[in-house]
Design a protein that fits this description.
The structure is a homodimer. The first copy, chain A, is built from eight helices and eleven strands. Chain A is of the alpha/beta class. Chain A folds into two domains: 6-121, Rossmann fold; 131-219, Arc Repressor Mutant, subunit A, CATH 1.10.10. Chain A has a five-stranded parallel β-sheet, with helices on both faces. Chain A has a four-stranded antiparallel β-sheet with strand order 6-7-8-9, covered by helices on one side. In chain A, helix 1 links the parallel strand 1 and strand 2 (30-34). In chain A, helix 2 (37-46) packs parallel to helix 3 and helix 6 packs across helix 8. Chain A is elongated, with a radius of gyration of 20 Å. The termini of chain A are far apart. Chain A binds a DNA duplex through helix 6 and helix 8.
Chain lengths: 221, 221
DNA sequence: GCGATCTCTCAGCGTTTCCTCAGCCGGCGG
DNA sequence: CCGCCGGCTGAGGAAACGCTGAGAGATCGC
């Protein structure tokens, strides 16, 4: 079952990288090492791996960057991020950006293996290039938005807001959550969110975003 | 964000359990203690916790056993296992059986807290998407409720009440218990509960919630 | 430097929601 | 038969919630 599972490990702490490699090899994986972001990215892009273990803090380009770039290049190899800190935002951001899982250092080796196995087992869900919810379409790469076929112009904030709502349209998204992810500020007033929901509604149509009183908003197109 | 995070700690080493409790309380969690597997299981099953810290070696039933039983009962509260030995296999077994994370004793308290936070944050274990009791369906993520197929609109309080009743539909739920869990207030009047049961009944149908005189309510759909 | 654009704060408004109060109903025990 | 207790519900005021117009800084291009 593990025959021919190829894993790329990108971490600049060479001792740690080595020991991860040794451990994974003992588990039957074929493991390649890389020690900086740029090289890691190139290798991940062409290397045909089954999984990538990626440190966030890296020389060259950081982990988020590498994942974003890979996903933009249509490389959907499962990525497990290694994070030195355990602040909430970096983890959430990593997952947002297209990583599949994460671990906080220091981590247990057994857990690492379990996570990798789970990740590989689980069918990779390539994110579609453009988001579509009902009559709404949003292409993150070109920043173009169409509502019911016709193009609308959104400012940066408006777009970020709509994109987040569309990425999570299957559930109700709370205002504080939006504040966290779209405004990445802490002590702000949720009224900004309301104001911007208003702006977006005026541009894409009132019905595209429904208010769920006491809970938040939901994109329905 | 930590407001109202309830944690159950099950460990037969009372000194250790106490000190974990003290530490977690200082971190802003509400913590209950239990010292053997059987009691721990019962409490975990009914207690509506946000996370469970569970020793593997326990009198009564062991940790694996408890997790397995909980998962079988459809309780998906995140579980962190505490293992005394650090052979790898027992840990892997624990994760296989449905635990979310584990720590080997002795562990650092900071790590424990970080793991708990991570566990609670991430929807690791698949919680079944919708609750269903008789003709009632409730989807917590979209906050949608259907009674006999047709959608009904509930306010925040009404929804919380119905959700609690549905999550515990196999037994009668007392008014004071509802006051505790749905209103998280102390010295309130149970009349609020009666009032809201009335509201919900009007919306989802009179028969969905039966009154058990002198005892409380029960969701039957 | 100056206007245009964008972002965010503030205050006010109408509406919904929440909770309290008080009266009502109905079963049950005396 | 009557009174009591537990449960139910209509009414209404207070508070919370969500939306929006106005406008002040900030930023950017010209």
């Amino acid at each position: 079952m593990l025959a021919d599972m190829r894993i790329l490990v990108v971490d600049d702490e060479r001792t740690l990288a080595r020991s991860i490699q040794r451990g994974l090899v003992a588990e039957g994986f074929a493991v390649d090492l890389e020690h900086d972001g740029t090289a890691g990215y190139e290798r991940a892009r062409w290397g045909d791996y089954d999984a990538i273990v990626l440190d966030i803090m890296l020389p060259g380009r950081n982990g988020y960057d590498v994942v974003t770039a890979l996903r933009a290049e249509d490389v959907w190899t499962p990525v497990l991020l290694l994070s030195a800190k355990d602040g909430e935002h970096d983890v959430a951001d990593g997952l947002d950006v297209g990583a599949d899982d994460y671990l906080t250092k220091p981590f247990s080796f057994v857990v690492l293996v379990a996570r990798i196995r789970a990740m590989v087992r689980r069918p990779a869900t390539p994110r579609p290039a453009v988001l579509a919810v009902g009559a709404l379409e949003l292409d993150p790469s070109t920043r173009q938005v169409r509502a019911g076929g016709l193009a609308v112009d959104l400012t940066v904030r408006e777009l970020a807001l709509l994109e987040y709502l569309m990425r999570h349209h299957e559930r109700v998204v709370g205002k504080v959550e939006l504040l966290d992810h779209v405004w990445d500020g802490e002590g702000e007033d949720v009224n900004v969110v309301e104001q911007y929901v208003g702006y977006v509604r005026r541009k894409v149509g009132r019905a595209a975003i429904v208010t769920v009183r006491g809970a938040g908003y939901r994109a329905v197109g």
